[in-house]
Specification:
The chain is mainly α. The protein folds into 3 domains: 32 residues, no CATH class; 187 residues, Lysozyme (Orthogonal Bundle), CATH 1.10.530.10; 60 residues. Helices cover 44% and strands 6% of the residues. It contains 12 helices and 4 strands. The strands form 2 sheets. It has a two-stranded antiparallel ribbon with strand order 1-2. Strands 3-4 form a two-stranded antiparallel ribbon. A hairpin with a 2-residue loop joins strand 1 and strand 2. Helix 4 packs across helix 7, helix 7 packs across helix 8 and helix 8 packs across helix 10. It is globular and about 70 Å long. It starts with a helix and ends in a 24-residue tail after the last strand.
């Protein structure tokens, strides 16, 4: 099949953003692609790797071979993991407005919202094989240490606001220990004991220079890579409109201090389904709620807010969307 230049542009970016997806392709390169006559219907382009990237107010040098290659691996992975990366941006429109003010109030750099992205894919109900739970993937012991309640009927690791507050307490404690946010981020994955011990044993100053298990070695680079895509999505081939993003759904609050023996009955009395009660209160871990003398506030979604009868127009970050026209 003979390919025209227009065919090639479609290959490179899905039509609309072909030549801006990942890297710029010069006219000579386009000619070479035409001449080679690709036999596949799309093309995979390696994303451009910068010499440095900003993280928590400082530039991270990527010119050293191991740093460049580590960052390249994560940026390439997120760039071509299309459905998942696009879903992350859609979810962020709902959850970043909740997370960002809490980080700011606690003096935590805004970039740490991307830690939640890579930890849980912004799913407040997710549980890892290691039994870390919630958007911030907290282990039970750590969660209790930083003020969260976990009982047979309640798991506040799944409460977005409370879990974010707990994560901030951990991050502040780690920063008091290390004095730099890169090591803080690495310690979130490996633990402060591991990072401190390895910095001492390997006699280096930066956690980026440590020899660690693969998961931890990749961790900070994953945060930096997903940040790059979130800040420039169309450059990496992600084209979204405001109507594609998930809107925040308004709720009313109901505070209870007595046990609720049947949450399905309670939900029906509030004019919603049991499923909706669980979705908007993922910290409820049973069919009942035992308060143990504490007060809990439940979020009840407003009926009119639960429908996409009109296109979503709420865009948390204008960089995420192109024109709706």
């Amino acid at each position: 099949m003979r390919l025209s230049k227009n065919n090639v542009l479609c290959f490179l970016g899905g039509g609309v953003i072909g030549l801006t997806a990942c890297i710029s392709i010069g006219s000579e390169d386009v000619g070479k692609v035409i001449e080679s006559r690709p036999v596949v219907s799309s093309m995979t382009v390696s994303p451009e790797i910068p010499e440095s990237v900003p993280f928590c107010g400082k530039l991270i040098d990527l010119t050293r071979y191991n740093r460049r290659e580590a960052y390249d691996r994560e940026l390439s992975s997120f760039t071509y993991f299309h459905s998942t990366t696009m879903l992350l941006i859609k979810r962020a429109n709902r959850y970043f407005p909740v997370i960002e003010p809490i980080l700011k109030a606690n003096g935590i750099p805004d970039d740490f919202k991307y830690l939640a992205v890579i930890e849980s894919h912004l799913d407040p109900r997710v549980t890892s094989p290691a039994r870390a739970v919630g958007m911030w993937q907290l282990m039970e012991g750590t969660a209790r240490d930083y003020g969260l309640t976990i009982t047979p009927t309640v798991d506040e690791r799944c409460h977005v606001e409370k879990a974010t507050e707990a994560a901030c307490r951990y991050l502040k404690a780690a920063y008091a220990k290390y004095g730099n946010w890169v090591s803080v981020a690495a310690s979130y994955n490996a633990g402060m004991g591991r990072i401190t011990g390895e910095l001492d044993k390997q006699d280096v100053d930066s956690s980026l220079d440590l020899w660690l298990v693969e998961e931890t070695s990749r961790y900070v680079y994953r945060i930096m890579a997903i940040k790059q895509i979130f800040e420039h999505p169309s450059k990496y081939g992600f084209v979204l409109r405001s109507r594609d993003l998930y809107k925040r759904i308004a709720t009313r609050e109901v505070t209870v201090n007595k046990d609720i023996p049947n949450l399905a009955v309670f939900a029906k009395g509030q004019g919603i389904t049991y499923a909706d009660l669980k979705r908007f209160n993922p910290w409820l871990r049973d069919r009942k709620l035992v308060t143990g003398g504490k007060s809990y506030t439940l979020a009840i979604p407003l009926e009119k807010e639960m429908y996409y009868k009109k296109p979503n127009t709420e865009v948390h970050d204008p960089a995420w969307v192109v024109s709706d026209r």
